[in-house]
Structure formats: structure tokens, C-alpha cells
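I would like you to sit down with the pair of lines that follows and say whether C-alpha cells and residues agree.
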Amino acid sequence: MPLLLPVTFAPFAAAEQPVLDVPAVRARLRPWSGDDAPAVRAVYADDAVRRWHARTFDSDEEARAMLEGWREGWSNGSESSWAVVDAASDALLGRIAVKLFDPHGVGALAYWTAPAARGRGVAPAAAQVATAWAFDAGFHRVELVHSSDNAASCRVAEKAGIPGEAVLRQSVRHADGWHDMHLHARTRGAPEPVDGPVSGPVRDGGGLAGRAVGGSPT
């Protein structure tokens, strides 16, 4: 059966996942490495991350398996997931991912910030860079969702220039039940954030559950 809207969009077609600079917070986005497993496991032991992402790891091997899945996302065309690291020391600051939510060009952001890096504006700066990359790669729209109880993620989205758009009623289940989710979105060609590049402290909390396929936290 022929499709009236054939899918030709392939944002992750390059041979190598790019490394991106985040100069506003002296960081960079790089592909994940198996060596990141201990640091990622420690992040998922944090109460805020566990609350919003509904996941933890019992061993470095479990964390390493997750990292391998994130790395494979580039080659299988499902997502580009980056480690947000300090540009000088390579210390892990967080995660940012652009997931392919709709094959015609809608992406979904997911992120978290390591506890020691919170309050520095890491999450909104990384989100700005990842969103700019997504539009350059051909995405038409980038979405971000977070629990209505997660005020910190709402501030991150606004600071990153991704305005609120709607409330998705009782759409994602967390450990304490079903949550309303705030939907933020930006389309290609929309005005840049009025505040310009991220600067100054932003309390970025534990992150959010991205708009993953199936709606489950990630």
C-alpha cells in the first residue's frame, strides 16, 4: 500500500555522531562511553532523578547496557543521546537526547542533570545546543514534556526557548500515580529565546521524562 507521505527524513544518517560545544557553561556534548557507567549509575541513585525517570541501576554493568542502547540509537536512527561533560575535565554534568518522535520530523528532548552540576544552567544550555542541532539536521518541531509537579523542568524549558503549549492530562505514570504533563514545543524558524544565550544560575532539578515512544520515562 503506497504511502501518501513517504518518509525520507534521516537525521542520524552521518557516519559519526557529532560532538557539540556548549560554550555558555564551558561544556560539550559527546557520545557516551562504557567508561561513563559508574558516573551514570551514581546519577540514577539520586532521589530527584529516580523520581522523574523511574529507573535505577544495581550495578555498573546494568548502567553500561543502558549506555550501549543510547549509543545504538544513533546507528539505528531512533535518537541522538549525548553525555554533557565539562569541556576541560570531561566530568559528567548531565544527559541530553533528541529522540525521533515522528518520522516526518518531530523530535523529543530528554535530559537530566547530575546532582553536582545543578544550579549552573547546564540543562537549558545543553537543550539550546541540541535543539539548534536538531533544526540544522532537518527536524521541523522539537517537543519537551515534564510532569506538572516538576517546576524546575518548566523553568529549564522556558529558559531554553521552548515555550509551553498544552497540558497532557494524566498521560505518564510515575511511581506515585498518573501525572499531568506539560508539553513545550518549538518549531524551526521560531524566534530565538528573548533572553539570548543562557547565562546565570538556573535551578535545573533532576530532569524530566522525555516524550519517549510509549510515553514511559527514560
Observations:
- Confidence is low (pLDDT under 50) at residues 196-203, 211-218.
- Residues 60-76 form the longest helix (17 residues).
- The CA atoms of residues 123 and 204 lie 6 Å apart.
- The radius of gyration is 16 Å.
